[in-house]
Amino acid sequence: MTISRSRFRQNLNPPHDISTVWLRVWPQDLDINFHVNNGRYLTLMDIGRMDLLFRSGLAQNMRRHGWIPVLTGLNARYRRSLGLFARFALETEIVGWTQHSLFMEHRIMTATGELAVSAFVRAVVLKPGDGKEKVTTEDFFAPLGRLPSSPALPEACLLLLSPAERATMAVAA
């Protein structure tokens, strides 16, 4: 549904634009406490990433090359519960990148504008084959033009890096 709707929505130009998708909580989203299951939030965040990728044209470029996006890390914070039939906005934006990793923030906002869940994810894009060769972020963003320097990564994203990667970033800075 998100993919087909994306054709009729305004194009996005990441990393500058934010995807916003309005959704509703359905019975299958709930856990035994009658609020959205923590694992279900992760599935909902997939919708935000797909909306961002399809509306920017990046998903079509990935398919053309046979590239495969893979999440490699997640840092989430749950603040408020969402109950049955609650309407909410899922905001997704690219907040930074390294040579091979892309970092996105997802925010799930209640209909009244309160933050319910925030999560930072780290993703890589793999080339076809044995799944070991990564696409550079420069190549990934190429259809959108020249990639500017990444903004400083939020602390929550830095936690998704290995100690060796953090040390390399510190030396480069």
Secondary-structure topology with pairs:
Elements: H1 2-6, E1 19-24, H2 38-56, H3 58-65, E2 68-78, E3 87-97, E4 102-110, E5 115-126, H4 137-141, H5 155-158, H6 163-172
Antiparallel strand pairs: 1-3, 2-5, 3-4, 4-5
Task: List its traits.
about 170 residues, alpha+beta, five-stranded antiparallel beta sheet, 6 helices, 5 strands, globular
Structure commentary:
With 173 residues, the chain is an alpha+beta fold. The protein has six helices and five strands, in the order αβααββββααα. A five-stranded antiparallel beta sheet has the order 1-3-4-5-2, covered by helices on one side. The longest helix is centred in the N-terminal third of the chain and has 19 residues, at 38-56. It is globular and about 45 Å long.
What proportion of the residues form beta strands (DSSP E)? 25-35%
Main sheet makeup: 5 strands, antiparallel
Sketch the topology as an H/E string, one letter per element: HEHHEEEEHHH
Distance N terminus to C terminus?
A: 42 Å
The tally of helices reads: 6
Q: Could you give the count of β-strands?
A: 5
Poorly predicted regions:
none
Strand order of the largest sheet: 1-3-4-5-2
Q: What is the compact description of this entry?
A:
This protein is an alpha+beta fold and 173 residues long.
